[in-house]
Amino acid sequence: MEIKRAAEIIRSGGVVAFPTETVYGLGANALEAKAVAKIFELKERPSFDPLIVHVAEPAQVFEYIVDSQCMLPLQRTYVQWLTEKFWPGPLTIVLPKNTLIPDIVTAGLSTVALRMPDNPVALELIRQSSCPLAAPSANKFGRLSPTTAEHVRKQLPELECVLDGGAAKIGIESTVISLQEDGFTILRQGVITREDLEKILPASGHAAVDAGLAAPGLLKAHYSPAKPLYFAGQKEIDKSRAGIISLRGANIGGYKLAEILSPTGDLREAAANLFGALHKMEDAEIDCIVAEPAPETGIGLAIMDRLRKAAYRWRPR
Ligand code: TXA
Ligand code: MG
Question: Where in the chain is the domain with CATH 3.90.870.10?
Fold first, then answer.
């Protein structure tokens, strides 16, 4: 499917799946409540879970947020610093919204999450659609995120338009942050880490979501494969009927199937391969998936966030 046709579908109020550098998105015109409602329907997503609005230029952000008098004095400056450094790229910034953004996009919140994806197909689609795109990951609610067009078709076979941009190079959803006067709060971990952000912004006194802060849409169970997933050692299992997802390939003996995320232990490469490995395991003839925990520093935090949520539903009780 070509971008031109996909943009026509968006302009006529429809929904298309498109590649980004993180995961595939399911997009609709962010300024049209009716179009956005179709995303929630297709995804079977609860209405309390807000969507990210994708733009093609950093300057577009200022069209959809409150004017400078209504913002904290430093918020605008922070946005400029962040977009200069990280956009296009896997960073989503939550800011106070104006009335152009319908409430359905933000689940009734007064803030909107904005991001400029680093993918030529995504950027061209937004430009040709002549509107920002509200887009969650293109999977059924709670299931594995798609990093290829094939993954999208597996979960959403009824979708008319899936733009194929090959495998997503980052492979894990964007880092989501909110801004305060004294710095930032990480609402979702991604490949842009706290350390990366602290080079640009003051460190905020606020804790990250993982420390228990309530944020919409950030559920304990998410990204669930269709098969049970346990951490290594968490449960007695029959290795000959199980698959292992291993960081570097140590301790994979005896398993029916093994996916090695990065032979050199590079966490960025591991993140890029994580959902692909989970999809393979989900589709394989095995009873359960065993995951080796990643080190909880830098990008390892994002990998562990996804794995914990994937394992939550299956935790031994
Ligand atoms: O990499 C990504 O971010 C991908 C690609 C497609 O851009 N999108 C994605 O969207 O992961 P989704 O819907 O699966 O996750 C978006 C998350 C929501 O679950 C929510 O936690 C957070 O972003 N979010 C959105 N709007 C928010 C807001 N106003 N305040 C706080 N969190 C918000
Ligand atoms: Mg998602």
Answer: 2-198
Fold that domain 229-311 belongs to in CATH: Rossmann fold (3.40.50)
**Residues present in the chain in total:** 317
Rounded to whole angstroms, the maximal C-alpha distance in the chain is 63
CATH number of 2-198: 3.90.870.10
Q: Are 108 and 87 in contact (CB under 8 A)?
A: no
* Closest among 138, 185, 147 to 261, alpha carbons compared: 147
By most ligand atoms within 8 Å of CB, the mutation choice from 15, 86, 91, 92 for ligand 1 is: 92
What's at 275, amino acid-wise?
F
- How far is the centre of ligand 2, averaged over its atoms, from the C-alpha of 137 (Å)? 4
Query: In the prediction, which pLDDT does 206 show?
Result: 55
Query: Pairing state of beta strands 25-29 and 133-135?
Result: antiparallel
- Across 13-38, average pLDDT: 98
Model confidence at 218, pLDDT cuts 50, 70, 90, reads low
Kindly give the distance from the C-alpha atom of residue 43 to the centroid of ligand 1, in angstroms, as a whole number: 14
Cα–Cα distance for residue pair 105/111, rounded to 1 Å? 10
